[in-house]
Amino acid sequence: MANVDDRLSRLENNRPPEEDPEAALKWAVSRDILNEYARLKASRAKNSWRGGVPIVPEDIPGKILGEGYTHGQMMELAVRRVFEREHEIEPDILDRETTEGLIEQWTASMRQYLTSSGYAWDEVEA
Fold first, then answer.
1. Is the pLDDT reported for residue 14 higher than 70?
2. Distance CA 62, CA 74 (A)
3. Dihedral of CA 108/114/118/120: which sign?
4. Is pLDDT larger for residue 125 or for residue 66?
5. For residues 42 and 4, what is the distance between their CA atoms, to the nearest angstrom?
6. Rounded to whole angstroms, how far apart are CA atoms 32 and 83?
7. How much is the pTM?
8. CB of 114 within 8 A of CB of 105?
9. Cα–Cα distance between 69 and 126 in angstroms, integer?
10. Coil, strand or helix at 124
C-alpha cells in the first residue's frame, strides 16, 4: 500500500468545489467512511499508548467479522457502520431499504476506487 501521506494528499486534491452541494455531500460521506475505517484499524492497535496509559486493543472488526477478515470486509464494515448510524439518527429519512442500497452502492464505489489505486481489497488483514 502506498504511503499514507501520499494517499491523503490525493484525496485532498480530489476535494470538490464548495459551491456544488451534491459533491460536498459525497465528500462528507467519503470522509466519514474513511474516519470510521481508521477507528476500526485503531481499535486493533497493540503496544500503543495514549497520554502515558497503555491502550488495550478492542479489535472491533475481529469481534464482528471473526478471524481472517480482509481489507475489503473491513472497509465494508466501515461503510455499514456509517450508514447504519445515520439510519438510527434519522430513520424517517433513511429507511432500512434505502440504507442497505446505499451500503451496497458505497461499498462497490469504494472497492472500485481503492482497487484502481492499488489497494489490496481481498488481502487478509494482518
1. no
2. 9
3. negative
4. 66
5. 14
6. 10
7. 0.79
8. no
9. 9
10. strand
At residue 17, the pLDDT reads: 66
Cβ contacts of 64-73, under 8 Å, gap ≥ 24: 68/124, 69/124, 69/125, 70/121, 70/122, 70/123, 70/124, 70/125, 71/119, 71/120, 71/121, 71/122, 71/123, 71/125, 72/111, 72/121, 72/122
Q: Does pLDDT of 89 surpass 70?
A: yes
> Can you tell me which residue has the cell 429507511?
95
Q: How many CB atoms sit inside 10 A of residue 34's CB?
A: 17
Residue 73: pLDDT band by 50, 70, 90 thresholds?
Answer: very high
- Dihedral pair phi/psi, residue 67, rounded to 5°: -75, 150
C-alpha angle with apex 64: 121 to 62, nearest 5 degrees?
A: 70
